[in-house]
Design brief:
alpha+beta, five-stranded mixed beta sheet
Length: about 290
């Protein structure tokens, strides 16, 4: 593996866009070939995964990994962005709301739900990103999208002030800002999010994240540690390296895939996926 191939687990600072982090990493690592999986809002902090060099080809497998967040729900005020960076659009007296009501309201958003993307988001509608339209003062109809909230808790930080700590485990594509606003609405008023921090993407947690100015790289095999792996010998490795479609029983794998295929030295050769009855094919082959 070259010095500029691998995965960087970054702890993004507040005030940086995900693109800012990529630009900084390009300069620090000395390569233009850097991309990210899973955008974070500028005000949010926490885990951002950067693929570097040939590992940029693996980002498509990292984006769908489940996410874990912590943040604060502030009851009593709605904003244009659904978080503390926006302008207040409505104020409600929610002084009578108690922690038990907040916890119950939050529990109703656990499971498979439909969620409307916020206007300030990277979702495309009619070929334009919503945040581009929002900056021009244009609001458009957005179709609800299915997401899954695995766990959601709301614990009081300052109940008298209407501030609650949210902890969320969810599928990729879930907007925590929307959850905060929806909980506020469900309580008969409004709310917004502040101090959002992503603490994990899959098994990549914030305790192993590093500042973008001093990143170290995990190997490409380690980048796919959340997927099942199949180790092959030199002979089968040559077939994998040339991108051949294989009989499923040629790879020592189970389940539905995708699978990381590793060579005799533990290096990543390819990522294979199911290809019809009894067959597997390469989704990505890593050039040697």
């Amino acid at each position: 593996m070259s010095a500029v191939d691998g995965l960087a687990v970054i702890d993004k600072e507040a005030g940086w866009t995900s693109h800012d982090v990529v630009a900084k990493a390009r300069g620090v690592l000395g390569t233009r070939k850097v991309g990210h999986a899973g955008t974070l809002d500028p005000d949010a902090t926490g885990v951002l995964l950067l693929g570097v060099g040939r590992a940029t080809r693996l980002l498509r497998f990292l984006t769908p990994l489940p996410k874990h967040y912590v943040g604060e729900l502030v009851l009593g005020a709605e904003t244009t962005t659904l978080d503390s960076s926006g302008e207040v659009t409505a104020v409600y007296d929610m002084s009578g709301v108690v922690p038990e009501q907040v916890a119950e309201a939050a529990s109703n958003f656990v499971g498979d739900i439909m969620q409307v993307p916020p206007m300030v988001s990277a979702v495309r509608v009619g070929g334009r990103r919503l945040h581009e339209l929002a900056r021009r003062g244009i609001e458009v109809e957005r179709e609800p999208r299915p997401v899954t909230v695995h766990e959601l808790t709301a614990a009081p930080v300052d109940a008298a002030a209407g501030v609650y700590r949210l902890e969320v485990s969810c599928s990729s594509g879930t907007y925590i800002r929307s959850l905060a606003a929806d909980i506020g609405s469900a309580l008969g008023g409004g709310g917004h999010l502040r101090a959002l921090r992503r603490t994990a993407i899959g098994s990549f947690a914030v305790d192993e994240a590093q500042p973008v100015g001093a990143p170290s790289l995990l190997s490409m095999a380690e980048a796919l540690r959340d997927y099942p792996a199949a180790a092959v010998d030199e002979c089968l490795g040559r077939k994998v390296g040339s991108g051949q479609v294989l009989a499923a029983d040629e790879l020592p794998v189970g389940g539905e895939g995708p699978w990381a295929v590793l060579g005799p030295q533990g290096d990543l050769l390819a990522v294979y996926e199911a290809h019809g009855p009894g067959l597997v094919k390469p989704a990505v082959v890593i050039p040697r």
